[in-house]
Amino acid sequence: MQAVHDGYEAVAIKSDTDAVVACFTRRARGDRLQMKVMRGDVHLGIAMSGVSADSKVVFDHLRALCVEYHTMLGARYPLRRLAFRMGLRMGASTLRPDQPPLKVGMLMISYDELGPHVFQVMPSGETFNCKAMMLGARSESVRCYLECNLKRFKSASRNVLVSHALHALSCAIPADQMLNIDVGFVGEERTFVLLPQGHVRRYMQTFNDC
């Protein structure tokens, strides 16, 4: 669990019509950014916090489940079932004496016939259905922002919801690093969209409207 608390700052929130996930990224070798918000499937976006090697293991397993489900049933894996399936996989790693537990937490967003969803999956296997959630270092300041603004998320437009996610992360991230953020959203179109880095600046300009 400590690896998750010390990892990348990430946040996921939902309104009545959309779900947004955002995560701080750090520069890797060659001045490249390590991408931590990823498309798990057409309808699914995820952010991870923790050990990078374990993140790859978890992501590869998630992708395999999504491909298998779509191949067999011709449909997308419902997020509720997928989140609990991933929780079982991650929790099982804590019980195996022949390998260390997976040290990564995950935020997942999707949209189905019931609307937008946010789920959190922890290394212990615990899985939570959330309205808003965060992971990573300095997450308490992010939690404070989410709790203070929770009622405002429900009716927020997509643009305002993205701005709320960025504003929440700004409580934990220095201002000069705020452009090093990945943001993705999913709405009624049921297609997860990862925003280009250049679009973040435009959304940050709406902070004062939140």
UniProtKB/TrEMBL annotation:
<dbReference type="Pfam" id="PF00227">
    <property type="entry name" value="Proteasome"/>
</dbReference>
<protein>
    <recommendedName>
        <fullName>Proteasome subunit beta</fullName>
    </recommendedName>
</protein>
<dbReference type="GO" id="GO:0005839">
    <property type="term" value="C:proteasome core complex"/>
</dbReference>
<dbReference type="GO" id="GO:0051603">
    <property type="term" value="P:proteolysis involved in protein catabolic process"/>
</dbReference>
<dbReference type="InterPro" id="IPR050115">
    <property type="entry name" value="Proteasome_alpha"/>
</dbReference>
<keyword id="KW-0647">Proteasome</keyword>
<dbReference type="InterPro" id="IPR001353">
    <property type="entry name" value="Proteasome_sua/b"/>
</dbReference>
<dbReference type="InterPro" id="IPR029055">
    <property type="entry name" value="Ntn_hydrolases_N"/>
</dbReference>
